[in-house]
Structure prediction request, 182 residues.
Amino acid sequence: MINSDSSTSNSPGNSRLTEAREKSLSRFLPPLPLFTLAPLLNHIVNFITKKHPELFTRLGDSAQKTFLIDPTNLPFYLILQPNPNKPILKAYNRNKKTPHDVYIAGSFATLLKMIDSQSDSDALFFNREIVVIGDSEAMVALRNALDDMDETLVDDVAEAFGPLSFPVRKFFDVVNKVAKPT
Prediction:
């Protein structure tokens, strides 16, 4: 397991992400009361777990890993623990250090396009639009599991909102069209 501090070292691509974070409006915002997101994130991760149990088979041992997902232009990051028995998706303020096995960072728009199958994760990595540090086997397992899905993860997140799924999906579509990748 790696510490959050090691994720923000001078590794390749981090200077670009640091620059994006410094330009982001989120740096001016006070820490958010993220407990308000907890029920929503919990609902999403449990919905996806029930809908796609095959994801955990595909993840294998990597389902026990901890993934820190860092949308660099937002004032928080996410911790994903895809344990099929007790999946966790939590938001943390940036001042909280959290141990993790894999660190994935990029702008919100870039990460959204990646999980919406609109951008190739390998191309994003080699173009330094995302940074991945840590357990490469776990990252590849996660990428392969998402690639094997018939629908995109964004479709499933929208579907989790039931009657509000259409406007949620439209929101993601607008973000995909208008947001800059960094």
About this structure: Residues 38-51 form the longest helix (14 residues).
